[in-house]
Amino acid sequence: MRGTLPSQEIQALVASGAVRSAAGIAPEQIQPSSLDLSLSVEAYSMTGSLLPLGTEKVRDLIERFARYPINLREPAVLVRDNVYLVRLRENFALPADVAAYANNKSSTGRIDLQTRVICDGNPRYDKIPEGYHGELWLEVIPKSFDVRLRTGDCLNQVILYRGREILDAPQMLKLFGEPDGRKKSRPRILHDSAGGALGIESVADDGALLMTLDLNQEIVGYVAKKSLKPKPIDLAAVGSHEPDDYFEPIKRPRDGALFLRQNAFYIFSTFEYISVPPDYAVEMLPYDTSAGEFRAHYAGFFDPGFGYGKEGEVKGTPAVLEVRPYEDDLIVRHRQPVCKMAYERLSARPDKLYGVGMKSNYAHQRGPRLSKFFRQG
Description:
single chain, Deoxyuridine 5'-Triphosphate Nucleotidohydrolase, Chain A, 4 helices, 25 strands
């Protein structure tokens, strides 16, 4: 079956040796339709960000451009605005018809920690070609804060697929809740904060859902205090960092508009509450330069069950956005379009769902929420 692979098919790849790790793949690394990747002991400080050409291995780049090695067997601090390469513990021997793409995990995106997967002979970030055999490396760039890492930490995730089945506009309209000829209509996938269903005007021409900014809540977002130099964020210390040391809350603007500073890092949430039914996954698409020159997100993948529950009893969950204006300062307003969500079909229904019988840090988020590494008020 074509489509994005569910948890049980990811487990089958692990069992066959197509996805492997010297440390073994822990059960909690396998999500409903994604796999968490973990850091090895081997890391390097690099002179800059770069990609291998078609005949190069990542180790060729390290030999030429590394500044010094770092051993992550003991916790090490990665300094903001510097580029690092870390070998991932996982490596692939994929079947000829299986490929993958990668995203930041939401928790790392929300601390402005940029990660991008690199593999041998492939001059593209976060894309792993069909049938790839070899090591995987992670480019890590702390943008706002120093971070403390060690082997075993999971910063990003990979999505495996046999031909991606991304829904087009007619398919999305059916999924959106239009009657399908049976007594029961399909579940709605987009709601407002009160649980009311939103209409089909949110479907773009390419089939993706248009998502807008919510500036009509008591705290509309957070901005990173980049001018300060707080202690590094330790990725092993979940729930222990003081939010006020790193972020400043942004209150509801009186006139519905906010001024965003160039190169500052912001956390916002969407007005729309999105649901991902069990047979689908969702990728948040890159920002659209025609709608403003800013990066709309780092973490951009939503597993089956997000904002849905087991039987559709959850009426959506807002998406949290990591926003950084480039080139110029920006003025943004309530309900301004900020990103799009593309639904992709799974090859089979997964044997686990996000937020249902498994630990899920953001299943119940309402409005902008800081990363799991901070104390929750």
